[in-house]
Amino acid sequence: MSKKQKGVDLITRIGHIFRNKEGKRLDFDTRPYWKQIYNDMSRYVVLMTSRQIGKSTFQAIRILFEMLVTRNTSILFANAKKTQNNEFRQRSLLPQIYRNRKLLRAAFGKSSINNAKMMKLSNGSTLHLEHIGTSADSARGSSARTIIADEVQDIPRENLDVIMESAASFPKDSKYRFTGTCKDDRNLMYQLFLDTCQFEWIIPCASCQEDNPPIGMEHLDLEREYLFCSECKKPINSLEGRWVAQNPKCKRMGYRIPRLIDPNTVWRNSADGILDKYEIYSRNKFLNEVMALPSIHGEDLITLQELESFCEDRPIMDPDNVPRKEIEGQAIIAAIDWAYNTKIGGVSHTIISIAKVEHEHIKILYMKRFSGPYYDGRNDPDLVLNEIVGLVAAFGVDWVFADHRIGNKENQRLKQRIGKRFVEVEYSNGSHPVRWKSDSKRYSIPKTESLDRLFNQLRAGRFTFPNVDASTEYLTDILNVYTHYNDELTRRSYERKGGASDDFLDLLNFTLIAAIQYYGDNMPWLGKYSYQD
Ligand SMILES: [Zn+2]
Question: Residue 198 — left, alpha, or beta (φ > 0 → left; ψ -120 to 50 → alpha)?
Fold first, then answer.
């Protein structure tokens, strides 16, 4: 960067006054990407960042700096939720003042105010804290020179428009700062970033002399525990990076800060390193929270070609001829989705899968849809039930996971026949770990989170299937779902394509969850596997 002509630049003045979260000097030497951002005086700045990268420290410092050096200035700081505001105030804003006695004296005097909704310094400068995730009514009609919104991915567009109106009385010197973490490509965070000059941290390669493209998935490899050149694969040094606008004509400033450009990044550390998260997180969560990239709306979750690559050269196992050594000493898990009458699609069919939990994989041994002339049109309620009980015995099944449906008596009947090996499950729309509900005696499974994880495990090849000819009709069930993003709830959900069956997908999900619950902390390959949020 060129030297500033007049006086000391902003970052130097800030460095004299403020400290980081640990109370130490702000470290721009090993975090050079923050320099230009701290120095950026532009009226419009967007930061799209990974989590835990220093965003809150930046926000707190720039807010206090502006309040201290300008008399009677006014700032509106908006978050989606009240709890986010409280946390920002308690953990980032107040510590900056309280650990610096000079600052404390300068900041507060007789006329000062300092509460959860407002801070007023003795020089007349004010900060209002608003939460606008569900409604922007409280901020309507307020006036502020600087408008800041944090965690904008959780704020609906129209609520952001309301607080932007607050700067209407400062047409010449209003300022805007928007920060947050990516969600999918239709989310406000990514839309705001697209509408800027799109600064990316571009790192040259000392080996092949090429500039690397903006940090992306091509910079990740489970075998390489360092940042490498996407071209020649040699290590590259993030300290040598520089901000390069990808949309240079745009006057609005926007910076993308993926975790990988931080030279202090840890690549492996039990469950906390970049590559650990790459293995544990769902694909979308990893893209959003580590790479600061949007997940793509409407993208294929997985292809039939990928699924068929997990098929092995073996038939569906014959229940009359199950080799003892195949099922001894391993957890054998069955999953059932019962037939039910749908209003639109006619009659669905009961489906079962039986799997073995191996050291590295879940091996699907057997699957069957109870359809065809033998089952259709026969009114014997015990026909399918008897066959299922026979399969449980033949494969030595340890656990049978079956979905709960209101009014469905099949589960009770099966439970009477196979006892405590039977486990009932139900999906919930909430966001919580898989949990046992002792009142209703069944597992409650968060649908979106668990399916995110299932697709992640499927793509990683964690499941193996019988040969392609036998498996394809089941695997196509997996292609019949898509994710839908609800703008109002800022939440994603899985939907089924009209009329198509997704039953086998649910069986795989039940099987994965059963395996995790069965093994608990002793899960062979999922020891560190938990629902992180
Ligand atoms: Zn290179």
Answer: left
Where the chain has pLDDT below 50, the residues are 1-5, 342-345, 527-533
Helices vs. strands in the chain: H and E counts, helices first? 17, 22
Task: Decide if 100 is inside a domain.
Answer: no
Place of tokens 């993308």: 256
d(CA 366, CA 323): 13
Name the H helices within 312-404: 324-327, 382-394
407/423 Cα distance (integer angstroms): 17
Assigned domain for 223 exists: no
Ligand 1 centroid, distance to 6 Cα (angstroms):
39
What's the CA gap between 269 and 289, in Å, rounded? 17
- What's residue 299's pLDDT? 58
Q: What is the pLDDT of residues 408-453, one digit of tens each?
A: 788 999 999 999 999 999 999 877 888 999 998 999 999 988 898 8
Q: How many domains does the chain have?
A: 1
What strands, in cross-sheet order, belong to the sheet with 442-446? Answer: 435-437, 442-446, 422-428, 399-403, 332-337, 351-357, 362-369, 463-464
Predicted model pTM: 0.60
Instruction: For residue 276, report the distance from its CA to the centre of ligand 1, in Å.
Output: 25
- For residue 180 the two structure tokens come to 């947050």
- Name residues with Cβ closer than 5 Å to ligand 1, which is an ion: 205, 207-208, 229, 231-232
Any idea what the CATH number is for the domain that residue 481 is in?
A: 3.30.420.240
> Rounded to 10 degrees, what is the CA torsion of 402, 408, 409, 414?
-10
Separation of 238 CA from ligand 1 center, angstroms? 13
The rounded distance, in Å, linking the Cα atoms of 514 and 357 is: 10
> 237 C-alpha to center of ligand 1: Å?
11
Q: Is 508 contained in some domain? A: yes
pLDDT tens sequence across 83-111: 999 999 999 999 999 888 878 888 888 88
Q: How far apart (Å, rounded) are the C-alpha atoms in residues 202 and 295?
A: 22
The label of the residue with tokens 């699957």 reads 367
Strand 44-49 to 126-131 pairing: unpaired
- Parent domain of 498: 304-522
Beta strands 118-120 and 126-131 are antiparallel
Count of alpha carbons within 13 angstroms of residue 137, beta-carbon side:
2
Tell me how far apart the terminal alpha carbons of the chain are, to the nearest angstrom: 39
In a domain, 9, yes or no: no
- Give the C-alpha separation, 108 to 127, whole Å: 13
